[in-house]
């Protein structure tokens, strides 16, 4: 029986815990790293070590950032009246690559998925409602950019109901808020993260009332 050295075995186990990494891929990655220069490994280890130490969650939009508020929320050039609701920070990267969106974001950090025990309280829907209800809020349009699958659609519908209920209680004329949904070019079942710039640009430009 072939016994691996403990450092090799531990790294293989660590890679296997990552999503989408199976045993064979974990082994290939580990043995690849065995043959790279030590300086590369040290830089790699430093980047991993600083991943959580030097990042934080923006208290406004809940995106991953180095500062609070994040650069997008703090930017005077962004349109604070236009807020795009996404499931994950990776979706922001995809939308920003289009260069067509000048508003701000709200990251839900997931979608409603009863099969995985993820309900509205497990994601940041209530925080979105609070942003709408804030008397100082400038929001005039909410773009729902959740993924076009069953979970994303259920999340979008729930958000609409919550915003509509918030409008009744709100005293800052939020009844004028327009709620739209990304459309055109995003196929059912696809993820925002994997959409190309042209598809996302058309989806932004072709959004519809929800």
From TrEMBL:
Toprim domain boundaries: 81-187
Protein encoded by which gene: recR
PANTHER family hit by this protein: RECOMBINATION PROTEIN RECR (PTHR30446)
Keyword Transport on entry: no
C4-type zinc finger segments: 58-73
Phylogenetic lineage: Bacteria, Candidatus Gottesmaniibacteriota
Biological-process GO terms, alphabetical: DNA recombination; DNA repair
Family of the protein in this entry: Belongs to the RecR family.
Keyword set, alphabetical order: DNA damage, DNA recombination, DNA repair, Metal-binding, Zinc, Zinc-finger
Protein name: Recombination protein RecR
Coiled coil: none
Function: May play a role in DNA repair. It seems to be involved in an RecBC-independent recombinational process of DNA repair. It may act with RecF and RecO.
InterPro entries membership: DNA_Rcmb_RecR, Rcmb_RecR, Rcmb_RecR_Znf, TOPRIM_dom, TOPRIM_RecR
GO molecular function: DNA binding; zinc ion binding
Gene3D superfamilies documented for this protein: 3.30.60.80, 3.40.1360.10, 6.10.250.240, RecR Domain 1
Highest taxon above the source species: Bacteria
């Amino acid at each position: 029986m072939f016994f691996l050295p403990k450092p090799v075995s531990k790294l293989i186990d660590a890679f296997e815990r990552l999503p989408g990494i199976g045993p064979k891929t974990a082994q290939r990655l580990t043995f690849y790293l065995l043959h790279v220069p030590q300086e590369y490994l040290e830089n790699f280890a430093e980047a991993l070590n600083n991943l959580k130490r030097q990042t934080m969650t923006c208290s406004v939009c809940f995106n991953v950032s180095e500062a609070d508020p994040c650069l997008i929320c703090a930017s005077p050039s962004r349109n604070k009246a236009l807020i795009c609701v996404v499931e994950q920070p990776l979706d922001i990267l995809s939308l920003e690559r289009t260069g067509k969106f000048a508003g701000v974001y709200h990251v839900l950090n997931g979608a409603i998925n009863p099969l995985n025990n993820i309900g509205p309280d497990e994601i940041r829907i209530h925080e979105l409602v609070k942003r709408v209800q804030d008397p100082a809020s400038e929001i005039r349009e909410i773009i729902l950019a959740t993924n076009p699958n069953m979970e994303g659609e259920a999340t979008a519908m729930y958000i609409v109901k919550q915003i509509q209920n918030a409008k009744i209680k709100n005293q800052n004329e939020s009844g004028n808020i327009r709620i739209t949904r990304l459309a055109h070019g995003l196929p059912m079942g696809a993820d925002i993260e994997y959409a190309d710039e042209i598809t996302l640009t058309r989806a932004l430009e072709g959004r519809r009332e929800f």
